[in-house]
C-alpha cells in the first residue's frame, strides 16, 4: 500500500491538479489489487483526495480497466472491421472450441480471460491481439494457439 | 517523394536519440531556439498551410494563433495520440519508430505557444508505444531537449505520456481534455474552444501526432517550400493507413492529394486474391463509404467532400467483393454503440437501435421496412448529436444503404448474404 | 445590449444569456429535460433544439448563447420532428410502466411525450433491464426509467457538494449509482429526488402510496428542524403528510433541503403523539380533557403565586415553537404570573453568543443574509460543523468554495473536508485563535472603529511561537492561514455552539469577535432549533421584553404596561441555570415547560425537576420531562398550526397549517385558554390577534402584519443590515493569557449529528432507518491508542456515570475528544456529564466530561479472563 501511494504521488507531480492522475492511478491500482474492486477505488480516492463515487464513475467509463477479477493472462482480440474482414471471427470460434473461452469470460483454470476489442490500430497486420502487454499481429488459426500456449 | 515523417524508420534503431540525431534530428529545434521568435514559428506554420491531421483538417497555424493571443497562462500543449478511428494506424509508426520527431515537433510547438507543459495522450491499446515514448522522453531530457533550460536557452518545457484506457471518444479534443483532467471523457460544450478555455480552464492546443510531426520539417525548409508538397489547399506529406483487402496493407507516406486509385493500386499493390474492388472507406470507419467509380478522388480535405465522403484520418479501408456490406455496417455500428459516451440522447440510444436492426438483417431476421427504418433512425440522429461521433454513425449507415441497397434488400428477402459462404 | 428575435418577438438583453433563458424572459418555454435552473448547462438530452437563421443544423437552446441579430424559431415542423425523434429514442429503454410508476402525473417525460409524440415507438426489441434497487432504506432507484439527464448527479456534485452518486459505465450502459451500488450512504439530502424528471430516483417513504392527484392540500411552510428556516411545501392527503418538497427560487434554501427537512417529517404523525391531557393523580398521570387540565393548571399556578410569590414560578420557552407560542408564554409569565423567570435552552449557547456579539457590535449584528455566504470570498468556521448543525447553511459555504472562495475551519473540517485547502486540527482551539488574531492585528492594524473592542484587543499579550506550539500547529501552515485570511475582501465568520465549551468561554468568544472585527466579516451564529432567534425576539428572556428591550428601561416598561393594562415585573428574572438552581434549593415551586425536554438534554436536571412542586409540560410527545410532570398538555405540532419562525438570519417567515391535529391544541391557544382562566378578559384568539398586540409591544416588530409576509419572509427591521455601532460593555476573562493548556485526557463533547436532533428526529421512522442507535465518535488517533475498531462496544465512564455504546471512528473528531449525541433515549450525552453556567457569557459549559473508555468483549464472543 505504501508503495502504491508513493507511485501515485510520483504521477501526481506531472499535473497541475491531483485528480488528473486518476487514469494512471487506476492502472497502478489494477496492478496492486489485481482488478478494480471497491477497495481499489477507495484506495485511489484516498490517494487523490477524490470522492469515491467519482472515482468509480471515471473508471467505469473506460473499457480497458479490469472491473472484475480476470485470469492470469488477458487476451484482447480485435474484431473491428479490418480484423473481422481478415478472419477474427474464426479465431473467436477457435478460442471457444479450444479453451471454452467466450468474450468477457475466463477459462476455468484461470489461465486466460478474453475481451473483444474495438480497433487496436493493427489493421495492416489484421487480425491482431494483445496478450497482456504483448502485441501479436497477423494471426491465423495456426499461430494463435501456438502464441497462447506460450502463456501459462 | 522522399519520406519525411517516416524517415529512417526502416532502421531498427530509428527510435533511439542517437539515430534520430544522426539523420539530422533536433536541428530544427536548434534553429528555432537560435533564430526564431515564437511568433516567427507561428507565421511559418501559417505560411505552410498545414492542416490538422487528426480528422477535421483545421489550419494548424490559425489554431496556434488563437491560443497564443489568449492572455491567460499557463498554456498547455497536448498531442492527440488516441488514434481510435477504426482503420487508422498511421500515428503508430511515428510513436513506435520515430518518437523523437514527435518530441521535437512538440518542443517547437510549445516554444511557439509559450506552453511549458505538454502531454501525449496515448491510447491504452498501444502499450509498446508507451514504453518507446517514455524512453525517448527520458533521452530527450538527458540531452537537454526537454526540461527547464532547453539547449541552454532558458526555454522550459515538460512532457509526459498520459495513457488512455479504451475510449474512442477521448480522441475528440474536448473529451480528451476532460479525460486528462481526470474525468469521464465526455465532450464539452463549445464555445469556448480549448484554445481559450482548455485543460484546467487554460488555453490549450490539441494537435494530432502527425500534425506535430510535420512541424520540424516546416521549420527546416520553410513554410513556402513546404507548401509546394501535395495539393495546394492542403499541402504537405500525408500518412495513409491502408488496410483490408489489398495485397500490401500498411502506412504510406505520400503527398497529400494522391488519388485513391494510386494508393490502392500502386502503393498497396491492388486487390488481393484477384478479387474485385467493391467499396472503399476512405478516412476511417466514421467516413461515408465510396463505390469503385469514385476512386479517382484525390485524398485530401477539400476533394473528398466533393465525392461524398471525408478525408478523416486518411485510413483507407479497401473492401472487395467477398465482403458483405451489411455485415460491415453492422460491425461499424457495434463500434459506435460501444463507444458512444452516453451524453446525448440520439447517439446513446440511436446507435444501439441501428445496431439492433442491422443485427437482425445480418442474422437473416430482417423485416420489410427495415431499410426505411434504418434510414429514418439515422436521419433522426444526424445533425442532432452533441459531437461528431453520433453524426459519423448516422452517415455510415446512410452511405452504405445508399450505395449498396441491393445487398440490404437481399438480406431481407433471402435472409442471407449476397456474398461469401453466408 | 443584445437584441434578438425569438418566434418573432424582439428580446433585449443586458447580459448575454442562453437562448433558452432569453426565450423564458419573453414567456416562451422551450422544452428541456437535462437543463435545470441553477445547474450549469449540459446539452445532452437534445430536446431544446431550435432553429437559428443561417445555421444549417438545429441548435440546443440551453447551450447556445444569444447573440445580437440572432433570429430563432422554437417550434416548427422540423423542430417538432426532431423532438419527437429524441423522445422516441428515450422510450427505447424507458419502460412503459406509467400506471405503476409513482412519477406518473408529474413526469417530465410523460408530459413531453404527450405534447410531441411519438404515438407509438418503433423499437420492437427488448428494453434494457436493470433491477429496481431497494437496498436503501429511504431512496429507491429504478435505472430502467433513467433518461440520463444527469441532473441528479449534477445537483449532488454542484449544489449539494456530496459527490455521493455518479454515472457509471458508458453509453447506453450508463447508470446512476451511489458508490456502493446499493445503499446511498450519503448525506441523504434527497435533492436528487427533486430534480429527477422521471421516476428513476424516488423516495421510499411514500412509494406506491402517492400520486400527484392524491394531493388534497398543499401548505407553504418552513422546516421545523433547524435555524436555517428552509421553505418547503407540505403535501397532504386525508390529513396525512405525503411528502415535503422544496421549491426552486424560493427561500434561503432555493430548492434544496437536508435529510431532516426532506425525510424527517413523519415524526409528526407517530402514534406516540399526545392526544389528550394528563394530570398526575395518586402519583400517576391520568388522562383528562384539555379543559380540565387547563383549569387545574390555572388554579394551581394562581395558588402558588399567592402562597409563594410570583418569583417562585418559572417558564421554559421553546426554540421549536413559533413566535406566537413564545410570545404567549412570556405574556403568561409577565402579565398573569408577574414573573420574569423565563428562559429556554437557547441559553446553552445561542443566546449567550448572540448577546455577547451584540454587546460588542450592536444589536442585529447577526442579521445577515445566507446567500451572502455563497457570494463571499472566504468563510471562517469555528465552533461546530455547519454542514450537520445547519446543513443548508453549510451548502452556502460549499458554494463559496465553488465560486473560488477560501474556506477555513478551526478544528476538524467535517462535512467541509472536501472544501478546505488544508485541515487545521489544533490541539487547542483557543491558542490558535489568539495567534491568528494577533497576526491579523499586526499585519492589518486596528481599523479604529470600535474603541471599546480595540482597547481590549490591545491587552492581549502572547508569544506566537509559544501558542502555536501549544496548539500543535506548524508555522508554515499558520503563515498560509494568515495569508489566506488577509487576502479576504468580504469574508464571513460562522460561529457554532462549541465556542463556549472552554475553560473561559468569554475569552474564546472574544477572540472570535476580534477576528470578525479585523476581517470586517459578517457573522452568523448556528442554531440547531428553528426558532431560537424568534424566542429571543419575543421576549422569552429573563431580562428582556419583546423586541429585546432591557427590562430595566423604565420608559419601555411603561409603554408595555400601558398597552397591556397590566404591570410588568421590573426585576430581571432568573435564567435557565438559576431556575434549576432555585429548584434544587426548593425555592422554585412551579415550572411551566413548553416544548422542551429539559430532563433529557440538560445534565443534572433530574434533581431540580424532582424538587419542583408543580411541573407543567406542554409538548407534542410524552417526553422524559413530560413523564415527570404534574400536568401534561398536548400541543399541536409543526404544520398543525399557522404562525411564524425567525431564522438565524432573523428572517421572519410565515408558515401555514396543513393538517388538523387531533386531541391537541396550538401552544399559543393552550396558553390563551390558560390566561383566560387566570383573569384575562380578552386573550388573543387568532395568530393575527397575537400580532396586533405584539406590534404594539415590540418595537422590533412595529408595522408588521403577518399576513403580508411573503414567501421570501422578511428581515425585519434589519433588511440584512445589522444595526451596528451601538456598542455596549462586555467582559472577558483573563485576556492577557496564558493561552492553551487544558486538562489532559479524553473529553466528552456534545455531538450534533446530521440525521438527528433530539426528541423530534428520534421519532421519525425515516431518520431512524438511517441511524438507529447511538454511537460514540472517536478520532482515528484515539481509537488506535485505545485499541478500538469501528463498531466495537465500549464502556464509557465519567465521574457522573457509565454507559455502553458502539464506537464510530471518524476524522471529524478532534483527537483528545469523544463525541456523543443527545439523540437516543437510552444512551445520551447529558447522562454522563455535568454542566455549569459561565458567569460572563451566561452560557452552559459541560463539566465532569473527562471520560475513560474501555473496550467490551463483542457480543457472542466469550469473555476471556486472565
Ligand atoms: C469522435 C472523434 C474522435 C476523434 N479521434 C481522434 C483521434 O483519435 N486522434 C486525433 O488526432 N484526432 C481525433 N479527433 C479529432 C480531434 O477532435 C481534434 O480535432 C484533433 O486532435 C486536432 O488535431 P489536429 O488539428 O492536429 O488535427 C476526433 C474527433 C472526434 C469528433
Ligand atoms: S454524439 Fe453524443 S453520446 Fe455520442 S459521443 Fe458525442 S456527445 Fe457522446
Ligand atoms: S435541455 Fe438542452 S440539451 Fe437538454
CATH topology of the largest domain in chain B: Rossmann fold
Strand content of chain A: 5-15%
- Sheet with the most strands of chain A? 4 strands, mixed
CATH architecture grouping of the largest domain in chain A: 3-Layer(aba) Sandwich
Superfamily (CATH H level) name of the largest domain in chain B: NADH-ubiquinone oxidoreductase 51kDa subunit
Average pLDDT confidence of chain A is 96
What strand line-up does the widest sheet of chain A have? 2-1-3-4
For the secondary structure, the number of strands of chain B is 9
Q: So what's the CATH class of the largest domain in chain A?
A: Alpha Beta
* Share of residues in strands of chain B: 5-15%
Helix content of chain A: 40-55%
CATH superfamily of the largest domain in chain A: Glutaredoxin
Main attributes?
heterotrimer; B: 422 residues; alpha/beta; Rossmann fold; Ubiquitin-like (UB roll); de novo design (two linked rop proteins); 3 domains; five-stranded mixed β-sheet; four-stranded mixed β-sheet; 17 helices; 9 strands; globular; C: 866 residues; Alpha-Beta Plaits; 5 domains; seven-stranded mixed β-sheet; six-stranded mixed barrel; 26 helices; 29% helix; disordered C terminus; binds flavin mononucleotide; binds iron/sulfur cluster; binds FE2/S2 (inorganic) cluster
Structure commentary:
The complex is a heterotrimer of chains A (152), B (422) and C (866). Chain A folds into 2 domains: 2-61, Arc Repressor Mutant, subunit A, CATH 1.10.10; 73-149, 3-Layer(aba) Sandwich (Glutaredoxin), CATH 3.40.30.10. Helices cover 45% and strands 12% of the residues of chain A. Chain A has 7 helices and 4 strands. In chain A, strand 3 (129-131) and strand 4 (134-136) form a beta hairpin. Chain B has 3 domains: 17-228, NADH-ubiquinone oxidoreductase 51kDa subunit (Rossmann fold, 3-Layer(aba) Sandwich), CATH 3.40.50.11540; 232-320, Roll (Ubiquitin-like (UB roll)), CATH 3.10.20.600; 325-414, Up-down Bundle (de novo design (two linked rop proteins)). In chain B, the strands form 2 sheets. Chain B has a 5-stranded mixed beta sheet. In chain B, strands 7-6-9-8 form a 4-stranded mixed beta sheet, covered by helices on one side. In chain B, helix 14 (345-362) runs antiparallel to helix 15, helix 14 (345-362) packs parallel to helix 16 (388-403) and helix 15 (370-381) packs antiparallel against helix 16 (388-403). The mean pLDDT of chain B is 97. Chain C has a 7-stranded mixed beta sheet, with helices on one face. A 6-stranded mixed barrel of chain C has the order 29-33-30-32-31-36. At the A-C interface, helix 4 of A face strand 7 of C. The complex binds flavin mononucleotide (FMN), iron/sulfur cluster and FE2/S2 (inorganic) cluster. Iron/sulfur cluster binds next to helix 14 and helix 16 of chain B.
Amino acid at each position: 500500500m505504501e508503495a502504491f501511494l508513493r507511485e501515485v504521488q510520483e504521477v501526481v507531480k506531472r499535473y497541475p491538479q491531483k485528480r488528473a492522475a486518476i487514469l494512471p492511478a487506476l492502472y497502478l491500482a489494477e496492478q496492486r489489487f489485481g482488478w478494480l474492486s471497491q477497495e481499489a477505488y477507495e484506495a485511489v480516492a484516498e490517494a487523490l483526495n477524490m470522492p469515491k463515487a467519482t472515482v468509480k464513475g471515471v473508471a467505469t467509463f473506460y473499457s480497458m480497466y479490469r472491473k472484475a477479477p480476470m485470469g492470469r493472462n488477458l487476451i484482447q482480440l480485435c474484431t473491428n472491421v479490418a480484423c473481422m474482414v481478415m478472419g477474427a471471427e474464426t479465431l473467436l470460434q477457435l478460442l471457444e472450441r479450444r479453451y471454452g473461452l467466450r468474450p468477457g469470460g475466463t477459462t476455468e483454470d484461470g489461465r486466460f480471460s478474453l475481451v473483444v476489442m474495438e480497433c487496436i490500430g493493427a489493421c495492416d497486420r489484421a487480425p491482431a491481439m494483445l496478450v497482456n502487454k504483448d502485441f501479436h499481429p497477423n494471426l491465423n488459426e495456426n499461430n494463435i494457439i501456438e502464441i497462447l500456449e506460450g502463456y501459462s | 517523394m522522399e519520406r519525411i515523417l517516416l524517415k529512417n524508420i526502416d532502421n531498427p534503431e530509428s527510435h533511439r536519440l542517437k539515430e534520430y540525431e544522426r539523420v539530422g534530428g533536433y536541428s530544427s529545434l536548434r534553429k528555432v531556439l537560435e533564430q526564431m521568435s515564437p511568433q516567427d514559428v507561428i507565421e511559418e506554420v501559417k505560411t505552410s498551410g498545414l492542416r490538422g491531421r487528426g480528422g477535421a483538417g483545421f489550419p494548424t497555424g490559425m489554431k496556434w494563433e488563437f491560443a497564443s493571443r489568449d492572455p491567460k497562462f499557463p498554456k498547455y500543449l497536448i498531442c492527440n495520440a488516441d488514434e481510435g478511428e477504426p482503420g487508422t494506424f498511421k500515428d503508430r509508426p511515428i510513436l513506435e519508430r520515430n518518437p523523437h520527431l514527435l518530441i521535437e515537433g512538440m518542443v517547437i510547438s510549445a516554444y511557439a505557444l509559450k506552453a511549458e507543459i505538454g502531454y501525449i495522450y496515448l491510447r491504452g491499446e498501444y502499450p509498446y508505444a508507451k514504453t518507446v515514448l517514455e524512453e525517448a522522453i527520458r533521452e530527450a531530457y538527458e540531452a537537454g531537449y526537454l526540461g527547464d533550460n532547453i539547449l541552454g536557452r532558458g526555454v522550459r518545457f515538460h512532457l509526459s505520456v498520459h495513457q488512455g484506457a479504451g475510449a474512442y471518444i477521448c480522441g475528440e479534443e474536448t473529451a480528451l481534455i476532460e479525460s486528462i483532467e481526470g474525468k469521464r471523457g465526455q465532450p464539452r460544450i463549445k464555445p469556448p474552444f480549448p484554445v481559450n478555455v482548455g485543460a484546467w480552464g487554460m488555453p490549450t492546443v490539441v494537435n494530432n501526432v502527425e500534425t506535430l510531426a510535420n512541424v520540424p520539417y516546416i521549420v527546416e525548409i520553410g513554410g513556402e517550400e513546404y507548401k509546394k508538397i501535395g495539393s495546394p489547399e492542403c499541402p504537405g506529406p500525408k500518412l495513409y493507413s491502408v488496410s483490408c483487402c489489398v495485397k500490401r496493407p500498411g502506412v504510406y507516406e505520400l503527398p497529400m492529394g494522391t488519388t485513391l486509385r494510386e494508393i490502392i493500386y500502386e502503393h498497396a499493390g491492388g486487390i488481393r486474391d484477384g478479387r474485385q474492388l467493391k467499396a472503399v472507406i476512405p478516412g476511417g470507419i466514421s467516413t461515408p463509404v465510396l463505390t469503385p467509380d469514385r476512386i479517382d478522388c484525390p485524398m485530401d480535405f477539400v476533394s473528398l467532400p466533393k465525392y461524398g465522403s471525408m478525408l478523416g484520418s486518411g485510413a483507407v479501408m479497401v473492401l472487395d467483393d467477398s465482403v458483405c456490406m451489411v455485415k460491415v455496417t453492422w460491425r461499424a455500428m457495434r463500434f459506435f454503440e460501444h463507444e458512444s459516451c452516453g451524453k446525448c440522447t440520439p447517439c446513446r440510444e440511436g446507435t444501439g437501435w441501428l445496431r439492433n436492426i442491422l443485427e437482425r438483417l445480418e442474422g437473416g431476421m430482417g423485416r420489410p421496412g427495415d431499410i426505411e427504418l434504418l434510414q429514418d433512425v439515422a436521419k433522426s440522429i444526424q445533425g442532432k448529436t452533441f459531437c461528431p461521433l453520433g453524426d459519423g454513425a448516422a452517415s455510415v449507415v446512410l452511405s452504405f444503404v445508399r450505395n449498396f441497397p441491393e445487398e440490404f434488400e437481399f438480406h431481407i428477402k433471402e435472409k442471407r448474404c449476397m456474398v461469401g459462404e453466408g | 445590449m443584445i437584441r434578438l428575435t425569438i418566434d418573432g418577438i424582439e428580446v433585449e438583453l443586458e447580459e448575454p444569456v442562453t437562448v433558452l433563458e432569453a426565450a423564458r424572459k419573453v414567456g416562451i418555454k422551450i422544452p428541456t429535460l437535462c437543463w435545470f435552473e441553477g445547474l450549469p448547462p449540459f446539452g445532452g438530452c437534445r430536446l431544446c433544439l431550435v432553429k437559428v437563421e443561417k445555421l444549417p443544423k438545429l441548435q440546443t437552446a440551453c447551450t447556445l448563447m444569444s447573440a445580437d441579430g440572432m433570429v430563432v424559431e422554437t417550434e416548427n415542423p422540423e423542430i417538432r420532428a426532431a423532438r419527437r425523434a429524441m423522445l422516441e429514442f428515450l422510450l427505447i429503454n424507458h419502460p412503459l410502466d406509467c400506471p405503476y410508476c409513482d412519477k406518473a402525473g408529474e413526469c417530465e417525460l410523460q408530459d413531453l411525450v404527450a405534447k410531441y409524440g411519438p404515438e407509438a415507438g418503433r423499437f420492437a426489441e427488448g428494453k434494457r433491464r436493470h433491477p429496481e434497487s431497494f437496498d436503501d432504506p429511504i431512496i429507491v432507484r429504478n435505472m430502467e426509467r433513467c433518461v440520463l439527464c444527469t441532473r441528479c448527479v449534477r445537483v449532488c456534485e454542484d449544489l449539494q457538494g456530496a459527490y455521493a452518486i455518479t454515472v457509471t459505465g458508458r453509453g447506453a450502459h450508463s447508470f446512476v449509482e451511489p458508490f456502493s451500488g446499493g445503499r446511498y450512504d450519503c448525506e441523504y439530502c434527497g435533492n436528487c429526488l427533486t430534480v429527477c424528471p422521471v421516476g428513476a430516483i424516488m423516495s421510499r417513504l411514500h412509494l406506491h402510496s402517492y400520486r400527484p392527484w392524491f394531493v388534497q392540500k398543499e401548505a407553504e411552510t418552513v422546516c421545523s428542524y433547524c435555524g436555517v428556516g428552509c421553505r418547503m411545501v407540505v403535501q397532504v392527503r386525508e390529513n396525512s403528510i405525503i411528502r415535503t418538497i422544496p421549491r426552486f427560487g424560493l427561500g434561503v434554501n432555493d430548492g434544496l433541503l437536508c435529510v431532516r427537512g426532506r425525510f424527517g417529517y413523519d415524526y409528526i404523525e407517530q402514534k406516540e403523539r399526545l392526544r389528550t391531557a394528563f394530570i398526575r393523580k395518586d402519583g400517576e398521570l391520568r388522562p383528562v380533557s384539555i379543559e380540565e387540565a387547563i383549569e387545574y393548571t390555572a388554579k394551581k399556578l394562581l395558588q402558588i403565586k399567592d402562597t409563594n410569590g410570583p418569583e417562585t414560578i418559572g417558564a421554559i420557552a421553546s426554540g421549536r415553537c413559533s413566535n406566537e407560542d413564545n410570545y404567549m408564554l412570556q405574556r403568561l409569565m409577565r402579565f398573569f404570573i408577574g414573573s420574569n423567570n423565563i428562559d429556554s435552552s437557547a441559553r446553552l449557547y445561542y443566546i449567550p453568543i448572540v448577546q455577547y456579539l451584540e454587546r460588542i457590535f450592536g444589536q442585529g449584528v447577526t442579521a445577515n443574509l445566507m446567500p451572502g455566504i455563497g457570494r463571499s470570498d472566504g468563510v471562517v468556521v469555528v465552533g461546530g460543523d455547519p454542514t450537520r448543525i445547519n446543513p443548508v447553511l453549510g451548502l452556502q459555504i460549499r458554494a463559496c468554495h465553488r465560486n473560488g472562495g477560501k474556506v477555513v475551519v478551526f478544528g476538524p473540517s467535517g462535512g467541509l473536508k472536501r472544501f478546505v485547502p488544508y485541515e487545521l486540527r489544533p490541539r487547542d482551539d483557543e491558542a490558535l485563535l489568539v495567534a491568528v488574531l494577533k497576526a491579523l492585528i499586526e499585519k492589518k492594524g486596528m481599523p479604529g472603529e470600535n474603541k471599546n473592542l480595540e482597547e481590549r484587543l490591545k491587552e492581549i499579550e502572547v508569544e506566537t511561537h509559544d501558542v502555536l506550539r501549544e496548539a500543535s500547529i506548524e508555522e508554515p501552515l499558520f503563515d498560509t492561514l494568515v495569508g489566506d485570511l488577509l487576502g479576504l475582501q468580504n469574508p464571513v465568520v460562522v460561529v457554532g455552539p462549541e465556542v463556549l465549551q472552554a475553560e473561559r468561554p468569554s475569552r474564546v468568544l472574544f477572540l472570535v469577535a476580534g477576528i470578525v472585527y479585523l476581517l470586517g466579516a459578517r457573522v452568523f451564529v448556528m442554531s440547531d432549533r428553528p426558532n431560537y432567534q424568534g424566542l429571543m425576539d419575543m421576549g422569552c428572556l429573563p431580562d428582556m421584553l419583546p423586541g429585546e428591550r432591557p427590562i430595566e428601561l423604565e420608559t419601555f416598561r411603561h409603554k408595555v404596561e400601558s398597552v397591556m393594562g397590566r404591570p410588568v415585573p421590573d426585576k430581571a428574572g432568573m435564567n435557565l441555570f438559576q431556575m434549576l438552581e432555585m429548584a434544587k434549593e426548593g425555592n422554585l415551586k412551579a415550572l411551566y415547560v413548553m416544548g422542551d425536554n429539559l430532563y433529557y438534554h440538560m445534565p443534572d436536571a433530574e434533581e431540580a425537576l424532582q424538587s419542583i412542586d408543580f411541573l407543567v409540560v406542554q409538548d407534542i410527545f410524552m417526553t422524559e420531562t413530560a413523564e415527570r410532570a404534574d400536568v401534561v398538555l398536548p400541543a399541536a405540532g409543526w404544520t398543525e398550526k399557522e404562525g411564524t419562525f425567525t431564522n438565524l438570519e432573523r428572517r421572519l417567515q410565515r408558515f401555514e397549517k396543513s393538517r388538523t391535529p387531533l386531541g391537541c391544541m396550538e401552544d399559543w391557544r393552550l396558553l390563551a385558554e390558560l390566561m383566560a382562566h387566570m383573569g384575562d378578559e380578552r386573550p388573543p384568539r387568532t395568530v393575527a390577534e397575537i400580532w396586533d398586540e405584539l406590534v404594539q409591544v415590540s418595537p422590533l416588530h412595529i408595522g408588521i402584519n403577518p399576513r403580508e409576509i411573503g414567501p421570501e419572509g422578511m428581515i425585519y427591521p434589519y433588511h440584512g443590515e445589522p444595526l451596528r455601532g451601538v456598542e455596549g460593555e462586555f467582559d472577558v476573562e483573563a485576556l492577557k493569557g496564558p493561552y492553551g493548556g487544558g486538562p489532559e485526557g479524553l473529553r466528552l463533547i456534545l455531538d450534533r449529528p446530521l440525521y438527528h436532533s433530539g426528541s423530534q428526529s428520534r421519532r421519525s421512522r425515516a431518520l431512524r432507518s438511517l441511524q438507529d442507535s447511538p454511537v460514540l465518535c472517536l478520532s482515528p488517533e484515539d481509537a488506535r491508542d485505545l485499541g478500538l475498531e469501528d463498531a466495537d462496544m465500549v464502556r464509557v465512564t465519567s465521574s457522573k456515570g457509565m454507559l455502553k455504546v458502539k464506537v464510530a471512528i471518524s476524522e471529524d473528531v478532534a483527537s483528545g475528544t469523544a463525541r456523543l449525541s443527545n439523540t437516543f433515549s437510552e444512551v445520551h450525552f447529558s447522562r454522563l456529564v455535568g454542566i455549569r453556567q459561565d458567569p460572563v457569557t451566561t452560557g452552559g459549559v459541560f463539566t465532569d466530561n473527562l471520560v475513560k473508555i474501555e473496550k467490551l468483549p463483542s457480543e457472542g464472543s466469550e469473555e476471556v479472563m486472565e
